[in-house]
Amino acid sequence: MSKMTLGSYPHMLGFEQLERLLERTAKSSEGYPPFNIEQTSECSYRITLAVAGFSEDDLSITVEDRQLVIRGRQGDDGSERIFLHRGIASRQFQRSFVLADGVEVGEAVMENGLLHVDLTISRPETVVQTIRIRKG
After folding, report:
1. CA nearest neighbour of 68 among 115, 111, 112
2. Closest CA to 45 of 99, 126, 110
3. What residues of the chain score a pLDDT lower than 50?
4. Cα(43)–Cα(8) distance, rounded to whole angstroms?
5. What is the pTM of this model?
């Protein structure tokens, strides 16, 4: 049995890029840091990442090729501390979220070890276009 792709449906034209985006997102789904996605209104969402131990300067948020990319890298504080037990991770991370057309990234707020990133969706107006048929 072969895998069905969006390109194999004759009425779904131009969705090949969407399929590539879905495959790329599935490959980048590691479990750190944990996150929530909540719908805050009919046209807005909030992504919340648990980034305890990271400061605002340790984090970067970019939009690249319709992907929201959140990266974290903690700098070395330079102290020569000796840990008897080290259970708090200080590793770098990268989280990616694919954005649909019309999704805009709003503000990002850090509070109590949580990074909140707000998204809004602008609904495009419905446009009806009539195509004239000419004689050949």
Report:
1. 115
2. 99
3. none
4. 32
5. 0.71
- Is residue 90 within 8 Å of residue 33, measured between CB atoms? no
CA distance 108 to 54: 14
The tens digit of pLDDT for each residue in 68-82 reads 999 999 876 667 888
Beta bridge partners of 50: 114
Report the 3 state secondary structure along the chain.
Answer: CCCCCHHHCCCCCCCHHHHHHHHHHHHCCCCCCCEEEEEEECCEEEEEEECCCCCHHHEEEEEECCEEEEEECCCCCCCCCCCCCCCCCCCCEEEEEECCCCEEEEEEEEECCEEEEEEEECCCCCCCCCCCCCCC
- Rounded CA separation 91/102 (Å): 33
Residue with tokens 């990319």: 69
Structure-block tokens of residue 86: 């080290």
Residue 66 CA to residue 38 CA, distance in Å, equals 20
